[in-house]
Amino acid sequence: MAHILVLDDVPEAGMLVQKILGKKGHAVVAFTGEEEALAYARHHRIDLAILDIKLKRMSGIAVLAELKKMDPAMRVIMLTGYPTVQTAQQARTLGADDYCVKPLDKEELETKVSAVIGAA
Description:
The chain is an alpha/beta fold. The chain is 46% helix and 21% strand. The protein has a 5-stranded parallel beta sheet, sandwiched between helices. Helix 2 (34-43) runs parallel beside helix 3. The chain starts with a strand and ends with a helix. The mean pLDDT is 93.
């Protein structure tokens, strides 16, 4: 199964994704801090990153750009509670594979993760 990094400044959101995808057999590590998540990604192979767009210090878009510099082939799904066409386009331009709107729907998340990982 996949090694998945989750970054969301709300700890409960990261734990929810970890619980949902862990039950599917994925190895999921969740972070609330951008620097910790980026440091982890520098030293571990990540198959998929799931990033919230609104974070505390950086935007999820900036984290996406940093992750893609480390590994251009890394798959990425963006999360947001505040969807806009502009953010979706920006995320896609930087290489995001998909987009989920909060509150997360379990089946939608599982389907999108399966599709993105399957496309790798």
